[in-house]
Amino acid sequence: MDHFIYRNGQLYAEDVAIDDLAAEVGTPAYVYSRATFEGHFDRLSTAFRGVNPLVCFSIKSCANLTLLRLLLKRGAGMDVVSGGELYRAMVAGCDPKKVVYAGVGKTDAEIEQSLQAGIGWFNIESEQEFENVAAIARRMRKRARAALRVNPDVADARTHYKTSTGQKESKFGVDYERAIRFFETYGRDEWVELPAIHLHLGSPTYSPEPYGRAIHKALQLIKELRERGFTIKTLDIGGGYAADYESGVTPSFEDYAQAIVPLLRDFVESGGGIIMEPGRSISANSAILVTRVLYVKEGGTKTFAIVDTGMHHLIRPTLYEAFQFMWPSRVPEHLVPKQRAKGMDLSDLLTYEIVGPICESSDYLAKARAIPRVQRGDLLCIFGSGAYGMVMASQYNSMPRPPEVLVDGSSFRVIRERETYEDLVRGETL
Ligand SMILES: *Cc1c(COP(=O)(O)O)cnc(C)c1O
């Protein structure tokens, strides 16, 4: 569900016509809908209210300060994976106690920064990391709290191998079998308390079912740990809830909640707390990337639409072979899309290779994609670009990164400026 809708053949973000916005801010541009972003957070919170979770938004999916602030005002915490993301969370005004920090490679400097800030939880990914956090905490005389990231060894066959994290052979967390030993060794540390278990399956997980299996295993583990005298007060069930990249294939927040909430009820009623770490399910459909068609050309049997954005601004198609729905901003009434799918059941479409300006053959946004005919100068809108879009954008080929624009009803404002050539060389010497 989002607020990017066609009216009379013109795409709108809430009440702003995309063509008007592009005329003012130029292209390419990431365009966010505030109502969508906040609406997703609210719907998730409502769906899961039975277990009253602390919802820690995954900054790595979408990191703009203005957007983070919107969620903080609604009571969110933040899920960070680096010192830089922790810095963003602090600048945005996050209560450090609502920060969870995952990541297999936390440096000493990042650990010191986190202890200084007084974050809520270190999500610990290895034995050595725990020992290092404990040693630094002891040296700084700062008490800390940690959760053990347990690798639940469940996988959703549909999660791309590049984003799957929940199997035994992944670099994330420690194996379920090693968890008990981990607590026996580290569970009574003087400086770092270990009262929590963390799970994250990988992204996106297109079914509630793997969550069910992973949570079942985690609850079993918590029971065993309690029998051995360890107090487990918090279960962080991670993120990875799918976004609506394509109509009709993504479970709703309510679907996920229906499968997950009943499993957690006993744990919560006995005083346990739940943390969630959603990213894309909140941010992905909250933005489109608006690009302009520069040229259309024939090549062999193919027709190329060359646009003014590409893998440098949105790398998901190149990196994950991800599907991103894209459609012109203005179409005749009979070509207004009623769904977002790989194959659209419409006549009058032409098949394009939709590619960017970067000097790499891997710079494409869509291969053999049937869309309405486009011409030089037309705007093309890439839906589902709010997650892992701008945060992964680079300056490759020395192209400035696009601005981020936030639409709110009938008005909009730039929440991150378009980069300039001066930005490209900042910090360099001659
Ligand atoms: C990436 C990540 C998330 C968020 O994943 P989404 O698919 O964006 O929901 C949550 N937790 C951890 C530990 C992550 O690495």
Short précis:
This protein is α/β, with parallel strands linked by helices. It has helices at 18-25, 34-47, 65-72, 83-92, 108-117, 127-140, 176-186, 209-227, 253-269, 280-283, 316-320, 421-425; strands at residues 4-7, 10-13, 16-17, 29-33, 54-58, 77-80, 99-101, 121-124, 144-151, 174-175, 192-198, 234-236, 273-276, 287-299, 302-307, 326-328, 349-355, 364-372, 379-382, 404-408, 411-416. It folds into two domains: 4-32 and 284-425, Lyase, Ornithine Decarboxylase, Chain A, domain 1 (Beta Barrel); 34-282, Alanine racemase (TIM Barrel).
Structure description:
The protein has two domains: 4-32 and 284-425, Beta Barrel (Lyase, Ornithine Decarboxylase, Chain A, domain 1), CATH 2.40.37; 34-282, TIM Barrel. The strands form three sheets. Strands 4, 14, 15, 16, 17, 18, 19, 20 and 21 form a nine-stranded mixed beta sheet that branches. The chain has helices at 18-25, 34-47, 65-72, 83-92, 108-117, 127-140, 176-186, 209-227, 253-269, 280-283, 316-320, 421-425, and strands at residues 4-7, 10-13, 16-17, 29-33, 54-58, 77-80, 99-101, 121-124, 144-151, 174-175, 192-198, 234-236, 273-276, 287-299, 302-307, 326-328, 349-355, 364-372, 379-382, 404-408, 411-416. The protein is 29% helix and 25% strand. With 430 residues, the chain is an alpha/beta fold. The protein is built from twelve helices and 21 strands. β8 (121-124), α6 (127-140) and β9 form a beta-alpha-beta unit. It starts with a strand and ends in a 5-residue tail after the last helix. Bound molecules: pyridoxal-5'-phosphate (PLP). Residues 58, 60-61, 79, 81, 102, 200, 203-204, 238-241, 277-281, 387 line the site of pyridoxal-5'-phosphate (PLP).
